[in-house]
Amino acid sequence: MHSCYVFDNLSNFCKDKFFKLCLHYANVSVGNPSLWFLVALDTGSDLFWIPCDCRSCVKGLVTRTGRRLDFNIYSPNTSTTSQRVPCSSDSCRLKKQCSARPDICQYQVNYLSSNTSSTGILIEDDLHLITDDSSEKTVDAKIKFGCGMIQTGSFLDGAAPNGLFGLGIENLSVPSILASSGLTANSFSMCFGPDGAGRIDFGDKGSSDQGETPLNLDTPHRTYNISMTQIVVGDNVTNVNFTAIYDTGTSFTYLNDPAYKILTESFASQIEETRSQPNSDIPFEYCYDLSPNQQTFEAPLMNLTMKGGAQYSVANPFVFVPVGDSGTAFCLGIVKSEDVNIIGQNFMTGYRVVFDREKNILGWKASNCYNGTESNMLPISPRASPSGSPSMSLGPEATAKNGSPNSSQVRPGSSASTLSYTHFILVLSIVTNFLMFVLW
Predict the structure, then answer these.
(1) 247 has catalytic annotation
(2) Which residues contact 36 (CB under 8 A, 6 or more apart)?
(3) Cβ proximity of 205 and 358 under 8 Å
(4) CATH code at 2-10+211-343
(5) Extents of the domains making up the chain
(6) In tens digits, what is the pLDDT along the chain, a chain of 440 residues?
(7) Parallel, antiparallel, or unpaired: how do β-strands 49-56 and 138-152 relate?
(8) Which entry of 16, 42, 90, 235 is annotated as an active-site residue?
């Protein structure tokens, strides 16, 4: 039960100081006149926010080719369709501050990464979408989002430098708003291809032959939380019982004991490569040296059994890192967690993952994101997109501690399911292939 892995997948190659940028981005277009934003796609939080009249935010970056990319900064005063969300709105959580400014709703979201937050006011404006059909019709969806005036922590250090696209379950997330407006079914999918490209499809309810497992919704803050009953690593089979958040907003997978110990030690006992010396610059404990000019290695296959019995095979859980002047090592892309378990984006590579909030299930099917219906790659507002701009998946710093700034919920199936829904597509692309860690 071993497989041969080829060391040529640059989408899984991370230089030591670029670990926060082993991510995906998407280009979205907001307001009138429209402005594009290079945003993180995060199923671990709910609020969509972009830099706006900001006092603390990233202003741009430099590409690997030396091209300077200035980020757009949104302002409600320059968009003809912008409206401030009043404090009396059902979407406003911080109502206790209404006496100071009843005409605006303030928000603050704190994220798991230390001292990482976004603060500002809620705005409603047009999100420009293009349908996934032959007509490529433009649709303007009214979306409530955060006018992010102050970003702190990891947001100033490479994570979500130009905004974060909340895809969580609560009713202020983008898919929740699209479903409650009757524009799409209350379901969407994300596909992460082995070449680093991918797509997000709003309205996608998956297929009859996909694997499925139920979502655990009886948690204080509802997330895409699933249960696992078995871990298979090569010849080792271990029954388990633990839950994990399925989070595209995390680059790698975070597990606590006993799941972490079971998976990593089973892997270490079956790998034949030489284990690397510990390196404080690398967040992974299990790394192995590759000899000069080595292009392949064998490693045990990994399978997770989900609640309900469906099997989930981890296609390529490895991250390649430089060692010394010219050496290379591969690391098992799992970090030991002290609290929450997170199945990160690296475990989703090679799958179209369906977040079906009507049936309350997580679905998956192997895909390269191009075949069949997934070959039509339609971006949001292509006229406004810069060359190569994409869609992202963050480290755990992108997952909100306390959920959305809005506490009310979308009820599964609340959208009229008899309607003929439209599909909207966003294109994803890995960020480390074209960015340098230069921000201002």
Answers:
(1) yes
(2) 27, 28, 29, 72, 381, 384, 385, 386, 389
(3) yes
(4) 2.40.70.10
(5) 2-10+211-343, 16-186+371-410+422-439
(6) 666 655 544 334 443 344 444 567 788 999 999 999 988 889 999 999 999 999 898 888 776 677 788 899 999 999 999 999 998 888 887 666 666 677 889 999 988 777 889 999 999 999 998 887 766 788 899 999 999 999 998 888 777 888 999 999 998 999 999 999 998 999 999 988 877 778 888 999 999 999 999 999 887 778 999 999 999 999 999 999 999 999 988 889 999 999 999 999 999 999 999 999 888 888 899 999 988 888 888 999 999 999 999 999 998 899 888 777 667 889 999 999 988 999 998 899 899 999 999 999 999 999 988 764 433 332 333 223 333 332 223 333 445 654 444 333 333 333 333 334 567 766 655 444 334 344 55
(7) parallel
(8) 42
Span 16-186+371-410+422-439 CATH architecture = Beta Barrel (2.40)
Record the tokens describing residue 140, joined without a space.
């303007």
Please pick, among 46, 125, 247, 356, the residue that the annotation labels catalytic. Answer: 247
Q: Is 157 a residue of the active site?
A: no
Question: Which of 217, 255, 226 is closest to 340 using CA atoms?
Answer: 255
